[in-house]
């Protein structure tokens, strides 16, 4: 490998490392936001439990998917964003079920 090739590899490694550091920072922000989302989901779970409402609200989930898709200006990533939100909402439902089951077992 000549000096130009080594320099190019080093430049690419630094560029990748810089991008990965940015991803790490974004991941930290996403985790913080997800924690807040789960806290809010717990609040919604309490309301649903008191009103005897089901955890799954298909209409609401469809609205969320439509809203997040329309918030993404890049048509190439819209479906991926919706997939991420499907996973977030699925985990939110699981968390709500867990909270409701835990509350039931305390009775």
Report on this model:
The model has no long low-confidence stretch (mean pLDDT 92). The chain has helices at 3-50, 58-71, 78-106. The longest helix is centred in the first third of the chain and has 48 residues, at 3-50. Helix content is 85%, strand content 0%. It has three helices and no strands. It is mainly α and 107 residues long.
What topology emerges from the helices and strands here?
Blueprint: H1 3-50, H2 58-71, H3 78-106
Helix pairs in contact: 1-3, 2-3
Number of helices: 3
Q: Return residue spans where pLDDT drops below 50 for at least 5 consecutive residues.
A: none
Largest sheet: none
By CATH, the architecture is named Up-down Bundle
Offer a quick outline of the entry.
This protein has 107 residues and is mainly α.
